[in-house]
Amino acid sequence: MKKPIRVFLGDLTYDTITVSTESFPLNVGYIASYCLSKFGSDVDITIFKYIDKLEKAIRENPPDILGLSNYVWNHRIGYELFKILHEVRPNAIKIWGGPNFPLDIPSQEKFMKKYEVVDVYVHGEGEIGFASIIEHILKMNESDEDTCSFYNTPIPGCITRASNEKINYTPELRLKKLDDIPSPYLIGVLDPFFDGKLSPTIQTNRGCPFRCTFCTDGRDSVSKVNQFSMERVKEELDYIGKHVPKETKSMFLTDLNFGMMPRDLEISDVIAKSKEQYGFPEQIQATTGKNSKMRIINAVKNLSGSLRLYMSVQSMDKQVLSNIKRENISTDELIQLAPVIKQSNLRTTSEVILGLPGESKQSHIESLRKLAKANMDDIQVYTCMMLNGSELNIPTEREKWGLKTKYRILSRDFVKLSNNKNIIETEEVVISSNTLDFDEYIDLRLLAFAIWVTNKGIVYDPILKFLRQNQIDVFELFTNIAELKYNPPESIKEIFASFRKFTVDELWDSPEEIEDNYQRDSEYQKLVDGEEGINIMYHHHALVLSNVMDDWTEYVIRISENLLESKLDGNTIEYFKDVSTYCKGLSHNPLGPDRLETNPLLSFNYDIQKWVDDQFGKTFDSFRLNQPNKFSFELSNEQYNFVQDKLNIYGDTPVGRSQALKRIPIQKLWRRPIKSKKDLKEEKDERLFVLNDITNEY
Questions:
Q1: What percentage of the chain has pLDDT greater than the value 90?
Q2: Fold of 199-307
Q3: CATH 3.40.50.280 matches 5-169
Q4: Which of 581, 600, 633, 661 holds its CA 20 to 30 A away from the CA of 428?
């Protein structure tokens, strides 16, 4: 009896500092379960997530087949492990799959020539292509054919390297009936990954109806959306709820447009019931849909704060949207729905991309201004990435828009292998075009940072609302901060100077230049220590929160007072004093080591929180208190413990804090106003007096 084919499958994450990609290896789990259902005992499959475990297994007992997922965040380590396998077992078959692969054939040929030890690339969905490879090998083994026939025979759903150095192409293949893939959860192949470090990952459908040119899912071949059955989704969520360890709080939902499909409301109900039964998930990482907003709002509402509503507008400029083939996504509808979203007590995140084709500095600013005017809670600006597999990355598209790019290190994605070689992952980003120069790119990054800190979360909501009620364009506040107007504190100047320097210094001409530089241990140590290769936005936000939050608040107040100058009569001054004092209380010392002990005690003439929450446009004066109330602004033990748990996982260092911030709901950072015991007693006595007075009347 012939031995089964030994297969290693990996969707790798770095964990040199912390776990970089926390999702379960669901993608290769699908391939494993599909192949096991087809070939049974003819295959012996092991799944890997961690680099060191896979490297050790390759060196000690190399497989017959190594299949690795290829994303921008594990591309270079994947190829390095292929090379290691090639050294220890040259005849082993090495298979790559995933979206990080060019669209056009000339670039595909260059790719296959560059990565010469890779035997096969499975493009598109991996199940059929990978199973076709296994089937081909089993037939070869039965007929005792030599291995050269493997390379010369086209394989469905695969791109193979022929022995004559030519490339064999076959069409991308998709499964129409997704339930033909046995659940990797229900058959137990993902059980080893309930380790407390990774987050369970589910998928309820595949495909995307949109054709965005910057996205790897913008291909015509994936425009039809196929769905797993509801019964299966329910069974998987129940299985996960029963097996997930207590320390795991998050779940990834990989649907490309969650909330947009008619049945997504039912799925949100199922997730909500799972949370009620098992206490999981507390947080859901997902991309919400781009149209059908009311359905999305209802689905998000069902999840009671576990999932945030993401509005992926990318740009508000119609010409830019046309350039990236997003004409079928209504940004106007998003703006119109903003009041409805607010009334539903949902907070929104709006995503914008810097460096899109045809985007100028002015059009980008106008997009941000429109979102600020629509009162979006969180405006996140990302630099345009050039992704293999996206239409934008085709050479003709690059040339058409005059795209100039540089490379930067992906934060936390680096490792020293057992052979002492240092591997560093990189991303290619647009830093200028024929409508945007490099200096403008830098200016807009600084503006994005000012918006990120000031518009994120609830801490400055009172000031922003006050400005809006006084017909002040809040976007002027953000631009004044970014331009360092009105004599900012030295600490704020230093933060912006640091941000600018990092933004320039992080850019390199090529991935090879980066990797060569960090082969030196002294340079590599800078990555380990968090001196270089950081996420600049999160890093500097963490610096603000840890060290200069009070200064930032004072600066926001100073600029706001200048913007309000023409409105500052006696009443306005009195009103704004309460508003700004309230913000000082909320924002005080959110991440300092003594944060539990430093509780400001502040006095107010107005009920600021009721005014902030008011949806009916009542005048500020109508929220006047009968007498001044004192509030202590405190962090609860629950808040402290939640944040501390994240810092324990990622490290209480600048790097660790920047990573923790990605996983902490921003509301958990800010202090809560607690009415002083004296005022509470007086308030209680007053209520009793009124009640007795009413009783006596009857």
A1: 71
A2: Transcription Regulator spoIIAA (3.30.750)
A3: yes
A4: 661
